[in-house]
Amino acid sequence: MATMVDVARRAGVSIATVSHVLNATRPVLPATRQAVLDAIDELGYTPNTLARSLVTSRTRSIGLAVSAISNPYFTEILQGVEAGALQHGYSLLIADPHDDPEHERKVVQLLHERRVDGMIIAPSAEPQGLLRHLAQHEVPTVFLDRLVDSPAGSPFRFDQVCTENTEPMAHLVTHLAERGHRRIALVAGLPGLSTTTERITGYRHGLAQAGLPHDERLVAHGNSQADAAEEATRGLLSLPAPPTALVTANNAMTIGALRALRGLHLSVPDDLALCCFDDFAWADLFTPRLTAISQPSKEIGAQAVRLLLDRLASPERAARTLRLPSSFVHRTSCGCPDNSPEPEHHRKGPES
Questions:
Q1: Exposure winner among 79, 80, 123, 173, fewest CB in 10 A?
Q2: What pLDDT was estimated at residue 101?
Q3: How high is the pLDDT of residue 324?
């Protein structure tokens, strides 16, 4: 079995240089690094991860806690995290907190007990217990998709990455208003999530920009789930003055809304115009094709890995929040003819 000494001899470098390449503990010239990697490949060398972790106090593993992994949006985020981790020689330990605060705290504690080097988490709507655990143990952590506030009085800060929410949601509303709609409803997500709050704010901004009044009866919570969104949509359509257009605030709720419309024998866009926040692979296959806000889900995952590795390399640096741009994907469910323009990209927000 090949050893690190064998790799060093084959590559013509010192054992220390091989170690730096394997552990990313010091910059190595690209040509030298490639020589080491070629030697590893030629000799079939497999690093002893356990022994290496005892020396470096690192396991080169990342804990990923994301609810609803079956959701296409989070599945793509997972793909971005996995690709970014693999590129830098890290493995993933994955857990599903089920958007339940108590279960969330337990699975994160279990990941911590597995000695992961850091964590990437999509937090629940009530993350206080989670935040206390992470801050108490100073676990390097990046939050993705949903933003959180650090515990009051705690010097510990978290890096975060998410997409723009407010202006893209306003864009959907003003687009529907430009189509002549005056009663535009919203099926909003789970209360307490930053995505829910920001998208409701965007909905209100869109109404204001279009000169339309805000009617609380036209906002119903689908709790980020298909079944609850189906019920919420039915409630909206049973109003004495029902909406003529509907915006759903994530892809799971879009499915629920479509189920409700099918059950009521209503068609899109003839009976109700529909736009959704979250694009997904088969949105272009529906009839009509769904107009949507597309989030850069894989890039969110990749950037979360980058932020975490930066934190591991420089534990004392200031925390950062990174906002990524989204795209308006213009199709036909809003009642527009099937001659859609190219996607319109929203401006990238500031990194703080």
A1: 79
A2: 92
A3: 97
Sheet of strand 245-248, all strands in order from the earlier edge strand to the far edge: 219-221, 184-188, 245-248, 273-277, 291-294, 327-329, 344-345
- Give the global pTM: 0.80
Are 4 and 45 in contact by the 8 Å Cβ rule? The answer is yes
Structural tokens at position 108: 């994160």
The neighbour count for residue 249, using CB atoms within 10 Å, is 31
User: Which of helix, strand or coil describes residue 192?
Assistant: coil
Q: From CA 151, how far away is CA 345, in angstroms rounded?
A: 34
Instruction: Find residue 93's DSSP bridge partners.
Output: 63
b vs e for 7-19, b when ≥16 Cβ sit within 10 Å of the residue's Cβ? bbebbebeeebbb
Whose CA is closest to 65, among 105, 14, 38? Answer: 105
* Residues of the chain with confidence (pLDDT) below 70: 24-25, 47-58, 69-70, 151-154, 339-352
Beta bridge partners of 34: none
Element (H, E) at 185: strand 184-188
Tokens encoding 91: 């493995």
Helix (H, G, I), strand (E, B) or coil at 179: coil
